[in-house]
Amino acid sequence: MRLLPILLTLLPSLATMQPALAGPTLEGVRARGELVCGVNTGVAGFSAPDAKGEFQGLDADFCRAIAAATLGDAAKARFMPTTYQTRFVALQSGEVDVLARNVTQTLSRDTALGFNMAGVNFYDGQGFMVPKASGILAAKQLDGATVCVLPGSTSELNLGDWSRREKIQVQPVVLSSMDEMTAAYQSGRCDSMTTDASQLAALRVSALRAPADHVILPERISKEPLGPMVRHGDEQWRDIVFWTLSAMIEAEEMGITRANVVEMKASTDPNIQRLLGVTPGFGKALGLPEDWAFQVIRQVGNYGESFARHLGDGSAIGLERGHNNLWTRGGLMYALPLR
C-alpha cells in the first residue's frame, strides 16, 4: 500500500510524457506543408497586407507562430482573407485550419456553430467614433443618430442591446464590409460608426483622410474577448493553438525574447527549461517537436514584442497595453502553467 502515494505523485509526470496521436488537422497541415489561417481582409495592427502584399499584425503574427510550432517555419503560414459573412463558413468547411481575425468568443459560437475557443489574444470592448466637429463627447449623446455597423457581428447585436438598455434611439446603417462602413462614415451618411475600439483606432489612422478630425468616445458598451477559433472534434489541434498562445505570453512573463531566446536555453530555471524544450516531454504531449515553443519565440517573438510591433509604441496605432498587459502589470494576460 505504501506504493500508492508514490504512484500518485508520478502520475502527472507520466501523463505529460504520453505522446499525442496526430489529429486530422495537424496531419493535414503536415501533408500540405503549410498552415492555412483565416484572417481579416484588412485591419491595421491585426491582419492587413503591407506594401508587398504580406499580411502583418497581431493576428498574422499568431498565425506564423502556429506555423513555427507545427512546421518549424513561420514562413509556412498562408493567409486567407475572410469577411464577416465568410469567416465561419471557411472554418466549418475546412478551408482554413484556424480562424484568427478579431473574432469575439461567445457561447453560441462555441455551441451552435461548433467551434472551440483557443484562448484570448486581445481583450477589447465596443466603442463609437464620431467627427470631432460634431461636439459629441459621450455615447448617450448619440440619441437620434445614425450609426454604421457591420451585419452578423456582435457589434450589431450589442448596439441594439445598448440602445434598448439606455433608452436611446439610434438608427443602424448596416453595411457589408469595413471598407463600405468607413466610406459611409466619411461621406456623412452615418453620424457615428461602431465596432471594437481597437478596430476604430486602426481605421482612424489607416483609412480616414484626417485622423485628428475624429475621436473615439470613452465608453465601452461590451466585452469583446478576441481570439483564435478551431473546429470542434479535434482536441489535439485546439491544444496546439491554445498552448502556442500561452507560450508567447509565458515567454514575455519570463523575459524571453527573440534576441535572447538562444542564450536562455542555458538557464537553470526549470520553468524556462520546460518552455524551451530543454526538459523533454511537453512537445511530445502535443504531438510536436520538443523545441516547438523555442521556434515560436525565435521566429516570431513573445506576446509583448508582437503587441508593441503592431499595436503599441512601435506602431502607428499607438494603443496602450491596458487589459492586454501581463497580469503582473495590472492586465489580464496570464499564461497557464506549462507543467
TrEMBL record:
Q: Which SMART domains match?
A: PBPb (SM00062)
Q: Does the keyword Transport apply?
A: yes
Entry-linked SUPFAM superfamilies: Periplasmic binding protein-like II
The signal peptide stretch is 1-22
Which keywords has UniProt assigned to this entry? Answer: Signal, Transport
Q: Which InterPro entries match?
A: Bact_solute-bind_prot3 (IPR051455), Solute-binding_3/MltF_N (IPR001638)
Solute-binding protein family 3/N-terminal domain location is 34-264
Q: Name one Pfam family in it.
A: SBP_bac_3
Family assignment from sequence similarity: Belongs to the bacterial solute-binding protein 3 family.
Supply the name of the protein. Answer: Amino acid ABC transporter substrate-binding protein
Classification lineage:
Bacteria, Pseudomonadati, Pseudomonadota, Alphaproteobacteria, Acetobacterales
